[in-house]
Specification:
The complex is a heterodimer.
Chain A: H1 13-33, H2 38-49, E1 53-58, H3 64-75, E2 79-83, H4 90-94, E3 95-101, E4 107-113, E5 120-124, H5 131-143, E6 145-148, E7 151-154, E8 160-165, H6 178-181, E9 184-190, H7 195-204, H8 219-231, H9 236-247, H10 258-263, E10 264-266, H11 270-286, H12 294-305, E11 310-311, H13 313-317, H14 322-332, E12 344-348
Parallel strand pairs in A: 1-8, 1-9, 2-5, 5-8
Antiparallel strand pairs in A: 3-4, 6-7, 10-11
Helix pairs in contact in A: 1-2, 1-3, 1-8, 2-11, 9-11, 11-12, 12-14
Chain B: H1 14-59, H2 71-87, H3 91-102, H4 116-122, E1 129-133, H5 136-154, H6 158-164, H7 170-185, H8 191-207, H9 213-257, H10 264-282, H11 286-289, H12 292-299, H13 301-304, H14 308-334, H15 351-360, H16 368-374, H17 413-418, H18 461-480
The chains are: A alpha/beta, B mainly alpha.
């Protein structure tokens, strides 16, 4: 939808129903493949619908790579995997020109695309690559194109980077620079499964082999999902809430919550506000609504701001995490923007 | 999260959602008005109380008019309505609140978007929201400010009232006016004088303010003193006239008795004295007080004399004059203008004694002045009246043999009484002084007891004989019978007295 369109129009229930069915089917496929991670799968689909990059963080063996592999199979898109290592060079990712002899016998430099030229790029253990190599991903992730030898080449559409990193074994790793972290739409924490889930995994996963998805989302269906995303309406109060929330993440702003003033050094960027709005739209679409509400924003806020707020040393001393700060902000900031006087509350009637 | 494709949750009307948001707007407006009203009222009541208190202290304005300040509360609540109207949420905000609290997923907020109608039919019915104001502290402050205001307006301020409210001297003024009335009725003061005094009293009563009470009381005391002085002067004159009337009456009666026995010269001198006494008794205007014939007769009395009938009438007239004067004195005393002056009236003189004295006067000794003095009975003192014995003021008496040697008296027992302390009051017999106290009286005077009570004091051997003789004497008296009994009462058993019988 371009800005020149006159008025937004809500999708009708009939238009929305096949979209929701398709998304529910995809979710069911993911849930059947990776057991006990329903909320994670939901957020991954939110990232896909928002056309954003996702950073998965979790302990080894919890299924980060498997999730991305299954997602690649499910979406029926081209899929490449790069295992990031300290000696990985940028040309190993974006590609490089090589000397080739043509049919006419002449030799010329021909660009050999790297693994980044794909729809889904699995950047496994991205924090093990050197900063130079990590920086090679910046242009690809933000502008979805690469420039080699002065020549810019667009990446296939859609283009997703699904990166994983290990929060332990930090020796020999290079923490991602803030500029690159900010390019990830969501940072999702992959938790360990419960005992019941583990029991089911042991029963159904012999030698760790994953079942193949029975149904796939082809390119047309994916386009229809993206088109539906364009029609999800963001009401003005929700829009204002997102803007207010992101603004309130900066301790320099007036009337910020105490937790921000105490623990936050740098707040979220405007890119975070965009990411939050897009993610909220995706959550609304997953719920089968043509409009995004406050609860959609609240659902995605922890994942969007998780890697964007930079806390101070006091937070580290007090063992306050970014998620704690975001949770506190969600409780302190009124979503409606209605500044009620002290002592006045609006509550549900019994 | 509501699943909007669950068929059981759809079917509600959009108007109900609108009603919920409209009700929320109204509730928020009401709460805002109430909150602002309570806040502004609290401030206004405090201000009202402070102004009332300060002004009452400063000027002492009557407290009833302060209740007009209640009109300001109307203005306060109008302002509260205006502020509440400004604070009221917009319809979009109200819809956002309902949408957010009831988790409607933004559908209620998308009311202006095309295609909303289809979704409105499927919108779940939002439960109404309740606006709650926890204004306990604010309401408590309102109550406190109201209590402060009531206290500020109703609490009596003695200082302010005393300075502001006129003194109530009506009772004193009425009493003074009654005294003026008595003086006027007794013709001691004339009407213009009485009116002038009443005007002065009215002026004092009007100017009597609590701010300067001493000034008022000084003025009233001055008026009272003026009345007392006037009444005292009138009483003195009345007493003098009564003396003269009484003397004239006695002389008239004596002359009436001595018509035959007195000589011509004695009668002539007595007539002249009677005329002078009568004139002094009735005052200068004798013709107004007596009948013209009586006045004429008195003026010619020294030459022509008065017959017995005229003398009798004159005596009766003098009696009546005394009665009038006594009535005036009683009226003045009843009005508290004089006190104890009626006791100054002289006692009556017997006309017979006066006649005897007149008859004894020789030819050359009898004059009117001497007779006039003799007619007035004295009081026996030296301050007023002639007295029966003439006082001679010459040859001052010598002090020889009359002066006393100065002698230092022993300390009085009253000095000890000054330092006495009241330990209690009882109707029982007093306890005796414990050990160490002096025994008092009789043979034991001056004997110090060394222990126990006074009754148990040791009697020294040289006193034992006296005690023994006392009891032996009592035994002898009993044996002697009635002959010895009457003479022993005044000896009191004290050894060595003249009446004590020797053993």
């Amino acid at each position: 939808m371009s800005e020149s369109d006159a008025r937004p129009q809500l999708m009708s229930p009939d238009e929305l129903k096949p979209i929701v069915d398709l998304l529910n089917s995809a979710l069911a496929q993911l849930d059947a493949t990776l057991l006990g991670q329903s909320e994670l799968h939901r957020m991954v689909l939110v990232g896909i619908l928002s056309r954003g990059h996702i950073l998965l963080e979790g302990m080894p063996g919890v299924g980060k790579t498997a999730l991305i592999q299954v997602l690649g199979q499910l979406l029926a898109l081209s899929f490449n995997r790069v295992q990031f290592t300290p000696d990985l060079m940028p040309s190993d990712i974006v590609g490089s020109p090589i000397l080739q002899e043509g049919d006419d016998g002449k030799r010329k430099m021909v660009f050999e695309p790297g693994p980044v030229f794909t729809n889904i790029l699995l950047a496994d253990e991205i924090n093990r690559a050197s900063p130079k190599t990590q920086s090679a991903m910046l242009e690809a992730m933000q502008e979805r194109r690469v420039t080699v030898m002065g020549e810019t080449r667009p990446l296939p559409s859609p283009f997703f980077v699904l990166a994983s990193q290990n929060p332990i074994e930090l020796e020999g790793t290079y923490p991602l620079p803030e500029a690159q972290v900010d390019r990830f739409l969501l940072k999702l924490h992959v938790g360990r499964p419960s005992a019941d889930t583990l029991e089911r995994i042991i029963d159904t996963r012999r030698r760790g082999e994953l079942p193949k998805p029975t149904a796939v989302v082809d390119a047309d269906q994916l386009d229809s999902l993206f088109a539906a995303m364009e029609r999800v309406v963001m009401p003005t109060p929700v829009n204002r809430y997102i803007a207010n929330f992101v603004a309130m993440s900066h301790p320099q702003e007036p009337n910020v919550p105490k937790v921000v003033k105490d623990y936050v050094t740098y707040g979220a960027s405007p890119r975070a506000a965009i990411a939050m709005a897009e993610s909220a739209r995706a959550v609304a679409l997953l719920d089968g609504r043509p409009t995004a509400g406050f609860e959609d924003v609240k659902a995605v806020a922890p994942h969007v701001l998780n890697h964007r707020l930079i806390l101070n040393y006091q937070a580290r001393f007090d063992k306050v995490s970014t998620l704690d700060v975001v949770d506190q902000m969600l409780g302190d900031i009124d979503e409606t923007g209605l500044e009620l006087p002290r002592g006045v509350e609006v509550e549900a009637a019994p | 999260m509501t699943n909007h494709f669950g068929e059981s949750q759809f079917g509600a009307q959009d108007t109900q959602a609108q009603a919920v948001s409209s009700a929320l707007m109204a509730d928020l407006f009401r709460v805002a008005v109430l909150r602002w009203g309570v806040l502004l009222s609290t401030g206004y009541l405090l201000l009202w109380g402070v102004v009332a208190l300060t002004t009452r202290f400063a000027t002492g304005v009557d407290s009833a008019r302060w209740w007009w300040g209640a009109i300001g509360l109307v203005v306060v609540w109008i302002a509260a309505c205006w502020l509440g109207w400004r604070e009221r949420p917009s319809s979009q905000q109200a819809r956002a609140v309902v949408d957010g609290r009831r988790k409607l997923g933004g559908l209620l907020m998308a009311q202006d978007v095309d295609g909303y109608d289809v979704w409105a039919q499927r919108l779940s019915i939002p439960m109404p929201l309740r606006v709650r104001w926890r204004g306990g502290q604010t309401l408590a402050a309102l109550v406190l400010s109201a209590v402060f205001l009531i206290g500020a307006v109703l609490t009596p301020l003695p200082q302010a009232d005393a300075s502001a409210i006129a003194m109530n001297v009506r009772k004193t003024i009425d009493s003074l006016k009654d005294q003026v009335q008595v003086l006027e009725e007794e013709r001691i003061i004339d009407e213009p004088q009485a009116e002038a005094m009443r005007d002065d009293m009215a002026a004092v009563a009007e100017d009597a303010m609590g701010a300067d009470p001493s000034r008022t009381w000084e003025a009233l005391d001055h008026l009272g003193d003026q009345l007392d002085k006037t009444a005292a002067e009138a009483a003195d004159e009345a007493l003098r006239q009564m003396d003269d009337s009484k003397a004239a009456e006695v002389l008239a009666k004596a002359m009436q008795l001595g018509q035959e026995s007195l000589s011509e010269q004695q009668l002539s001198s007595a007539m002249q004295a009677l005329a002078e006494l009568t004139q002094q008794a009735v005052g200068e205007d004798m013709a107004a007080s007596l009948s013209p014939e009586m006045a004429e007769a008195l003026s010619q009395a020294a030459a022509a004399g008065l017959d017995a009938e005229t003398l009798k009438k004159l005596a009766e007239m003098m009696e009546g004059n005394q009665a009038d004067l006594q009535a005036m004195l009683e009226a003045l005393e009843a009005a508290n203008l004089i006190e104890g002056r009626l006791s100054d009236l002289d006692s009556d003189l017997d006309p017979t004694e006066l006649l005897e004295w007149l008859e004894c006067q020789g030819e050359g000794e009898c004059d009117a002045a001497k007779i006039g003095k003799a007619c007035k009975a004295g009081r026996g003192g030296i301050t007023r009246g002639p007295g029966h014995t003439e006082m001679i003021w010459k040859d001052p008496s010598s002090k020889e043999g009359a002066s006393f040697e100065p002698q230092v008296l022993p300390p009085s027992r009253m000095r000890d009484m000054e330092n006495a302390k009241l330990m209690g009051v009882t109707r029982a017999a007093p306890d005796t002084e414990p050990a160490g106290g002096d025994s008092v009286g009789g043979a034991l005077t001056g004997v110090e007891s060394t222990g126990g009570s006074a009754e148990a004091a040791v009697i020294l051997p040289r006193h034992r004989g006296a005690v023994q003789r006392y009891f032996q004497r009592s035994v002898l008296d009993i044996e002697d019978g009635a002959k010895a009994a009457p003479t022993t009462s005044d000896t009191s058993g004290i050894p060595g007295t003249a009446n004590s019988p020797e053993p």
